[in-house]
Amino acid sequence: MTTPQPWKILSSETAYQHRWYNLRRDTVQLPNGLVLDDYFVSVRPAGALVFPVTEDGQVIFVRQYKHAAGKILLELPGGMFDAETEDPSEAAAREFYEETGYSVDAISPIGILYDNPTKDTSQVHLFIAHGAKLTGAPEWDITECVEVVPIPLAQVLPKIMAGEIQVSCSVSLCFMALQRLQEHVS
């Protein structure tokens, strides 16, 4: 049996830099000695994603157009943040408010996922939030048009299983949050 080993980075350079997208080109040496001089990595900021539950048992989802998929998708609210300068829980609460106009009483971390660790640097910080309530108006950026969609807690899993919720990090967070909520009931 072979134990996985990290690759050695021989050199790294910015291949493309733009305010919306950064691409890095690495020259790496694999554990078997093979050198690859064109391993491209998408460099992205961290993300924060929230499973927000209202006092009456609704989970606040958002529906919006996702250009790379070419579809309008139902997902949990969240967004990107600078992990070097901002606390993940504060970023999660801010992103939730900006997309929906909702605030929360309490927010707790559930975990961190890697979005696509083969070709992408992004980590997604996952949170469950209680006491979500509408307290203002959404503050969308120029690319956003968001429909806020409250879904009864009991309908979240059936919607995942029916394929109505397809965004991978949202699906993962739903399963993790539902498990956490179940543990608190038991």
TrEMBL record:
PROSITE patterns: NUDIX
Domain of life the protein comes from: Bacteria
Transmembrane annotation, as ranges: none
Segments forming domain Nudix hydrolase: 43-173
Reactions accelerated catalytically: GDP-alpha-D-mannose + H2O = alpha-D-mannose 1-phosphate + GMP + 2 H(+)
Necessary cofactors: Mg(2+)
Pfam families membership: NUDIX
Keyword vocabulary terms for this entry: Hydrolase
Entries under Gene3D superfamilies matching the protein: Nucleoside Triphosphate Pyrophosphohydrolase
GO molecular function: hydrolase activity
Methyltransferase listed as a keyword: no
Alphabetized InterPro entries for the sequence: NUDIX_hydrolase-like_dom_sf, NUDIX_hydrolase_dom
Signal sequence, renumbered to the chain: none
PANTHER family with a match to the protein in the record: NUDIX HYDROLASE DOMAIN-CONTAINING PROTEIN (PTHR11839:SF18), UDP/ADP-SUGAR PYROPHOSPHATASE (PTHR11839)
Family: Belongs to the Nudix hydrolase family. NudK subfamily.
Protein name from the UniProt record: GDP-mannose pyrophosphatase
Species annotation: Nibribacter koreensis
Phylogenetic lineage: Bacteria, Pseudomonadati, Bacteroidota, Cytophagia, Cytophagales
